[in-house]
Amino acid sequence: MTYVQEWKAFDVTVADGVAEVTLIGPGKGNAMGPDFWSELVPLFGALDVDGDVRAVVLTGSGKNFSYGLDLPAMAGDFGKVLADNAKARPRTEFHDTIKRMQAGINAVADCRKPVIAAVAGWCIGGGVDLITAADIRLASADAKFSVREVRVAIVADMGSLARLGGIIGEGHLRELAFTGKDIDVTRAEKIGLVNEVFADGEAVLAAARAAAREIADLPPLVVQGTKTVLDHSRRATVEDSLRYVAAWNAAFLPSEDLTEAITATFEKRPPNFQGK
Fold it and tell me: 178-217 burial, b for 16+ CB within 10 Å, e for fewer?
């Protein structure tokens, strides 16, 4: 059947037990703007309870998976807390915003149906947060990854710092998080960020569909139970990390460096960070 709900940031279909969720923007490179963050919870909540869904394929439209957070579109959410001498109320409201955004990525991780990410092209910042919430990650030969938040004066707060260590190990996580460097798919496969690499975007999507088909043909309650058990020991640690970073960013994220990062993005120039 076709998923009839209209979404602004996603194209969603369900057929033969497999849901396919495609990021469609509207920001360039499927950047994650307000619609993305508001729709993730109801979308994956619906997939979680849909008896016709046994596995989910998550992919991006066009040449790239996602450029990550759409800073220009989300600038309004940062505005009040970036104001001079921001007091308790704007910081509390910003903390609530972080928690709402975290809930979107959590909805992907908490979906009882296994989620398979098919990544082609760039997967940056929030894109990495999103695929770390998936159960299986497949990539095309042109895929590139970056935990880039540090480069825009943000402590990553949507789940990469909480989940990536369990996927790639602490040493690799710290290198990527401290530097914001870009890595190609060869490095990503070597450190375990992706399970397997395919020739191009079409091939990786076909592989993700095949994996989802294989899962969907198995006893659904047993598959869901297996995912629940695998997630059990990690859930408390992830939740604790997310609570901590939300409080940290509400207190310490406002800075001249963040204002400079947003300004530089609008002006399309390199930022000049001063540690203020």
Answer: eebeebebebbbebebbeebbeebebbbebbbebbeebbe
The DSSP annotation for 162-179 comes to: HHHHHHH-HHHHHHHHHH
Q: What is the pLDDT of residues 204-238, one digit of tens each?
A: 999 999 999 999 999 999 999 999 999 998 999 99
257 phi-psi bin (left φ>0, alpha ψ -120 to 50, beta other): alpha
Q: Which residues contact 86 (CB under 8 A, 6 or more apart)?
A: 80, 254
The 8-class DSSP code of residue 1 comes to -
1 pLDDT tier (thresholds 50, 70, 90): very low
Q: Is residue 3 part of a domain?
A: no
Residues near 98 by Cβ (< 8 Å), separated by ≥ 6? 157, 245, 246, 249, 250
In three-state secondary structure terms, 202 is: helix
Range of the domain at 70: 10-202+215-267
Output the domain CATH number for residue 162. Answer: 3.90.226.10
* Domains in the chain, number: 1
- The pTM (predicted TM-score) of the whole model is 0.93
Q: Does residue 73 carry a pLDDT above 90?
A: no
Q: Tokens for 267, please give them.
A: 């002006």
Give tens-digit pLDDT for 124-162: 999 999 999 999 999 999 999 999 999 989 999 999 999
| Residue 125, Ramachandran bin (φ over 0: left; ψ between -120 and 50: alpha; else beta) | left
Joined together, the tokens standing for residue 211 give 């994996």
Whether 139 and 116 have beta carbons less than 8 Å apart is answered as: no
